[in-house]
């Protein structure tokens, strides 16, 4: 059994630029296993259909947890109890 808590918010800095953030906390009962994940994302809209984004995330594991900021893609997990920082950028175009 575990508990998961999260909170997030987004704010339009300008009509084209949005800044968003999220915090996630995962705690397993009767265990030292817990993790805290922080993420921040900026999105800039060139038009209604095209935007660019950049995301940065940091995760801190305790106990034997080995979660990653990239959802556990092959080879990306931390050592048990470790931490990790990751960034991602991309372009979104709606067809």
Account of the 3D structure:
This protein has a 5-stranded antiparallel sheet with strand order 1-2-3-4-5, with no helix packed on it. The model has no long low-confidence stretch (mean pLDDT 92). The protein contains no helices and 5 strands. The chain has 95 residues and is mainly β. The relative contact order is 0.20.
Q: Would you count the extended β strands for me?
A: 5
Strand order of the largest sheet: 1-2-3-4-5
List the helices and strands in order.
EEEEE
- Please tell me what the overall shape is: elongated
Beta content comes to: over 45%
Work out the radius of gyration: 16 Å
Unreliable residue runs: none
Structural class: mainly beta
Distance between the termini: 42 Å
Work out the oligomeric state of the chains in this entry: single chain
Number of helical stretches of at least 4 residues: 0
Share in helix? under 10%
The largest sheet, given as strand count, sense and whether it forms a barrel, is: 5 strands, antiparallel
Overall mean pLDDT stands at: 92
């Amino acid at each position: 059994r575990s508990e998961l808590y999260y909170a997030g918010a987004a704010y339009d800095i300008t009509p084209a630029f949005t800044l968003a953030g999220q915090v996630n906390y995962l705690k397993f009962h009767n265990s030292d296993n817990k993790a805290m994940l922080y993420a921040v994302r900026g999105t800039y809209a060139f038009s209604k259909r095209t935007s660019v984004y950049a995301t940065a995330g940091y995760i801190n594991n305790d106990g034997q947890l080995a979660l990653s900021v990239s959802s556990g893609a092959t080879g990306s997990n931390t050592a048990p109890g470790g931490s990790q920082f990751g960034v991602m950028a991309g372009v979104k175009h709606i067809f």
